[in-house]
Amino acid sequence: MPNQNLRRDEAATRSALITTHSYDVTLDVRQAADPDVPGYQSRSVITFSAARPGASTFLDFIGSDVHSVLLNGTELPVADVVDGARIRLDNLQAENQVTVTGTARYSTSGEGMHRFFDPADGQCYLYTQYEPADARRVFANFEQPDLKAEFTFHVLAPSAWQVSSNGTGTRRAPLPEDPGTSCWDFAPTRPMSTYITTVLAGPYFKAEDSWCGTLGDGTTLEVPLALYCRASMAPSFDTAALMDLTKDGLDFFNRLFDFPYPWGKYEQAFVPEYNLGAMENPGLVTFTESYVFTSRAADSQYQARANTLLHEMAHMWFGDLVTMQWWDDLWLKESFADYMGTLGVDRTTDWDTAWVNFANNRKAWAYVQDQLPTTHPIVADIPDLEAAKQNFDGITYAKGASVLKQLVAYVGFDAFIEGSRRYFKDHAYGNTTLADLLAALSAASGRDLAAWARQWLQTSGISTLTPGIEEHDGVLGTVTLHQEAEDPATGRQEPRPHRLRIGLYDLDGTGALVRTGSVETDVTGARTEVAGLAGRPRPALLLVNDEDLSYAKVRLDPQSEATVRSSLGALTDPMARALCWTALWDSARDAATPASLYVDAVERFGPAESGIGVLLAVLGNASTAIERYVPAGARPAVRRRFLTFAADQLQQAAPGSDQQLAWARTVAATSRYDVSQLDLLRGILDGSTVIEGLAVDAELRWNFWHALAANGEATADQLGAELARDNTAAGRAGHATALAARPDAGVKEAAWQEAVHGTSLSNQLLSATIAGFNTAPAAQLRGFVDPYFECLEDVWAGRTIEIGSRIVRGLYPAGQDVDGQDPDSTPDTHPVIVQTDAWLAAHPEAPRALRRIIIEQRSHLHRALTAQALAANHASTAP
């Protein structure tokens, strides 16, 4: 359908012309439970003003049909005014009312109104997801964030269902003409953007409670609470813990922001086949139901869920109350929510590792994203909606949050919060840009933040800080920090200012590696001499960016690296340990050291890692190092050694511990490419091998079956029997992955055809099928390289952005290796790199979002090939 990709200039023109007042939306989903009914009736009544009477504008609607358009009492000819995804409105008056009735389609892509049939009981569930611009798939509207309005929703649905929306429910009335169905009416909302409106409908399980808090002026505020999940998941729904966390979060943010929670009720729904972690719809936040733990989950997973819950709650102010004018300033909500989610976990829960996990996981995501040639400033250039869709990335979330953490240190926490409070009060229910936020923070802190914004928000790329150390007879001389700050997108060198701490660590009498001192320093330019270190004893470890105060990659000096590689497990401070793990991983990813050395470190120090979030991350990194960065010739031996080690740790770990679960998952993942532990997996599955305390639940069982299937040790009948045992949504996804993982040419061809050319797979099953397809040595998939490049344009044109992105990203032939036989082979001459470059050169006019995915996947492959080449050369020149 044409006209879907709204441009920024078009949006600006429209918002200069019109002001939206209200929407009254009716959705009829009474027949949703019939899978043969593809859509539902949608009716929008919109009131709005026009600055220039007689002018024209357009509405957005992506449906299967438009039945009628009534503008200011006049019926418009549908054939004349409907053009693809747009409905033209001519001859506007000063005040207008338009009514659009049409048929919208149910979705299986997670965009618009998603419909899901629970395989466990056959029940039908609906929910909506719109960001950045999919409300137009459900009802006609002006789809851009700066055209806010009040929304009133009405939903016709089966009477036995739960139905909810942003506003408080005001009435549920049976429909006499249609027994067994009712109409739910919801109160008008406060002004909000279209992309955060929402509807939930289905036989959901519902738990209710309320929160009552005392505000700064002494008044009280009562907020009704509710939690939803599918009925078949209710036995695993830990509602008491979630309610307690919700109440603590509302206490914290109401006090912190000094602006009463503005959206009436606060409901949270955990929904199936969700494309995101969560979405901040005011009054009804939606989450992925993977946060309802039906199988054993590690403590870090519960902490991550708490972080997401508090992230979305912070959005009620940052993003919902005050919203960016256009997607250029997406960071105005996501960076703040990412920072506030971690702050909330740190301040309101018993977890004391919130900032450690932020450093080890969220910032690691940002570091990867910021080294891609498609990196962008935190305040990005977003010319259209397709670009907006691609910018929900590590820069907008994690780098932005990291930079905000630096800003808090720069202006002071109290000034930062005071500026935020001014921002809310000045712009409540409105839209803002970077300038509005800087004005509030500058006024509160007394600092001119224009230079800070220019250096950190409006540039891209990551700095690498390397210490240069002079020492004499064990005493430090001059210590300098060298900063490399090349922007991958432009090639420019743009060193940034850093305020950071340098930690000095030595072994104490007990063998522990402890901090013995530290200095703070300001880093400016390419070279900075550090004051306060000369004359001190040379420490065993000199840790740059101790306590993770700045956003930068860190290289260890040779002596410090030797200390880390020999004594990382002796480092007692969790944050310092996490930063050292990150330094080792960055060194491997950047081909500064062979990736096998990172695997060695994980084998040596992983068992002693007490932080389960850090352990899960480093085990995942070790798997990536083996399969992507270790040369193909050395890979089987490194993999076998690591797998044997992981299996031993599984046997030795404390029964029932998170560490035991982590090692079990690692054994399963590594066994997809190695047969040595398959007997162990089979024994655990059939019960002949019992590991005390190990919860052999559905998730772990499917991980084991995936490994068996990838090695040709699981038949379709066996996998079908396991699905019959676990006939759930997660079980269905596990089954799809295992089926596609089987090392058979016909299986791979069928999976390819279904993913690329079929239309029956939902978003969840598509990703599961792609994951199984990719579980194969590169040689098995070489026949799909040419078809991949041949299908790109058709896939992008024929699928939604979400589904197209999953196919293009997921099926890129990334699992390739350097040619160990050809001494002249380089990453740049690798056949897939050459073919990628040829496609990009031949398609300069391809959609920007499509080209971005291809460029990013090429970069990931090139990095892997470079690391392999370094390791191969290192091995060939070793004495």
What distinguishing features does this structure have?
21% strand, twelve-stranded mixed sheet, alpha+beta, single chain, five-stranded mixed sheet, 879 residues, 42% helix
Structure description:
The protein is α+β, with helices and mostly antiparallel strands and 879 residues long. It contains 28 helices and 29 strands. Strands 1, 2, 4, 5, 8, 9, 10, 11, 12, 13, 14 and 15 form a twelve-stranded mixed beta sheet that branches. The protein has a five-stranded mixed beta sheet with strand order 16-17-18-20-19, covered by helices on one side. A four-stranded mixed beta sheet has the order 27-24-23-29. Strand 9 (112-117) and strand 10 (124-129) form a beta hairpin. Helix 6 crosses helix 8. The chain is globular and about 90 Å long.
The gist of it:
The chain is of the alpha+beta class.
How many helical stretches? Answer: 28
Whole-number average pLDDT?
A: 95
Strand content: 15-25%
Low-confidence stretches are: none
* Overall geometric form: globular
Give the % helix.
Answer: 40-55%
